[in-house]
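Z., the sequence and structure:
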Amino acid sequence: MKKSTAFLIAIVLIAAFAGLIYYGVTNSRGTPVKIEKIVTPLVEVPFIAQEIDLAQGISPELWQGIKPQEIKLMYQVTVLPWPKIKAGLGAVTFKAFHNKENIYFYLSWPDNTEDRFHETAVWPDAGAIMFPLEKKAQPHTIMMGFLGRVNIWHWKANQDREYWKNESPQTNAYVDFYYPFEEQELFPVSKHVTKSPVNDLLAIRVGTITPKDNQEVMGKGVWENGVWTVVLKRPLQALETENGVNFSAGKKLAALAVWSGSRGDRGGRKSISDWLELEIE
């Protein structure tokens, strides 16, 4: 064997051995996972001199001219109750604008079924926006109010039906699973008079969801061809300054959540987004 050939073989063997060592070191604790840098979505909130009368509809023509942002969703799997269906709902199309008096938010997502009732073992579709009230927001949005005070606007399809169509539930009380520990319906919850399709809520930590004294948020949802479109409306400045989010020019954080009643979503079972950033004109 020529010296040059022996030399090349030696080089190849050394390189292969070095490669095996490198692979062993980098995979000693499992196969490395490439972590993508999280980019916070930016949603523009322009000034538009228009008013939406929700009693007349959600003004789809007006929304067509506003830039959308697709916000990815993931299923909440951090705390009980665990989801029955592992896959989340994909994404929400999100838009916004203000007219210097009110701010409007548009959420749209696919859903094959229109779930507008809350009865025994039947749950409504729903959507929500969460706004941090602390100056320094919690790093994640997995649990509402986990590390600080938040204001949540929670639209529910059953309340929408009751409010806009003046239809009362078929049953005398709302009922739900005392999940995640029971398999049978327990503890009916008395029905309250529906004053809005949207619940204006506060949370300080897990298990502290509380309705605000002043329910200022209005909303309306339309289901058509397998798609929900929900528009929320509220004055730029909250009546309860300390307990409500205020909107002024600049940037504001928000996060989204969606519930699919036909999939068994309710309470902690939901699809959520991470923080997005509103850029208010």
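Confidence is low (pLDDT under 50) at residues 172-190. The first helix runs from residue 3 to 26.

Let me know what you think.
H.
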